[in-house]
Amino acid sequence: MKSKKYWVPVLLVAFGLLVVSCGSANKEAATAAIKAAEESWNAAKGEVVKYIPDQAKGVEDAIKGAKENFDKGNFDAALAAAKAIPDKVKGLAAAASAKKAELAKSWEEMSGGMPRMLDAIKSRLDILSQSKKLPENLDKAKLEGARGGYEAAAKMWDDAKAAFSGGNVADAMAKAKTVKEKAVEVMTTLGMQVPAAAATKG
């Protein structure tokens, strides 16, 4: 009987040590997985936020959730959540790269036609400014308004080119779109024919 009484606490201690050991292993695995998830996200975050910002929050929420489970001692849940993040980040990085290429192509098309539009507007403004009589539907106030619109568009085009040169293609395209809209507005005011490519939306 003494022998049996002796082994019961020994077995309980051994079982406790086994549970602690497993818990420790899961904790280490979860720690490593969370670290790997954060490192993969930090490497891709800049491009993802820049080109597909609406999808960035999902990754940040997933990392936050894994950390919260870890802090609560739910190491298995933290591990499972963290392990899935690098693959998700890899997919988002590829999507961001594709979006960047798409914007770069759009910029190439825009930068080919926009300078010609702005030059045509400037030429028309110069001619009208020297004219003794303005065309119908165009008075001095409208002419000055068109000139102001042209100057704003020309400045923003310079800003767009600077953004593109600095590697911010998304910002460059956003500015270029505004320039195109303003240029179309000014050309319409001046009675000029708007190029077909510029007349289409997008």
Describe, in plain words, how this protein is organized in 3D.
The protein is built from 6 helices and no strands. It is mainly alpha-helical. The chain folds into 2 domains: 15-97; 101-199, no CATH class. Helix 1 runs antiparallel to helix 2 (56-71). The longest helix is centred in the middle third of the chain and has 56 residues, at 75-130. The protein is rod-shaped, with a radius of gyration of 31 Å. The N and C termini lie far apart (88 Å). Mean pLDDT is 85; it is low at 1-22.
Strand content: under 5%
Task: Give the strand tally.
Answer: 0
Number of separate helices: 6
**What Rg do the Cα atoms give?**
31 Å
Separation, N- and C-terminal Cα atoms: 88 Å
Question: Which structural class matches the secondary elements?
Answer: mainly alpha
Mean pLDDT across residues: 85
**Major sheet, described briefly?**
none
How many structural domains are formed by the residues?
2
Q: For this entry, what is the oligomeric state of its chains?
A: single chain
Q: Helix fraction?
A: over 70%
- Principal-axes geometry comes out as rod-shaped
The helix-strand sequence is HHHHHH
Spans where pLDDT lies below 50 across 5 or more residues: 1-22
